[in-house]
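lol ok so funny story. i was supposed to be doing the assay writeup but got distracted and ended up predicting the structure for this chain instead. priorities right. anyway since i did it might as well share w the group, maybe its usefull for someone
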Amino acid sequence: MGIRCAAGREVYFKGEEKKLLSVADSIFASGYLTAGGQGIEYTIKAVTDAGFTCEIEAD
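and the output, tada:
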């Protein structure tokens, strides 16, 4: 079982992304389900700035 991040993380976790990313194992980016979101570039930067790596999967 995993923990996923989606819409609202930029608002609710602003400045605390590293804490959030340390427990999440997947992130929705660039159009979260039914809501538009920030671009994939922002998400990749947030992940790498927090000291993590990412793997991009697309359906």
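The CA atoms of residues 4 and 53 lie 16 Å apart. Residues 4-49 form one domain.
back to the writeup now i swear
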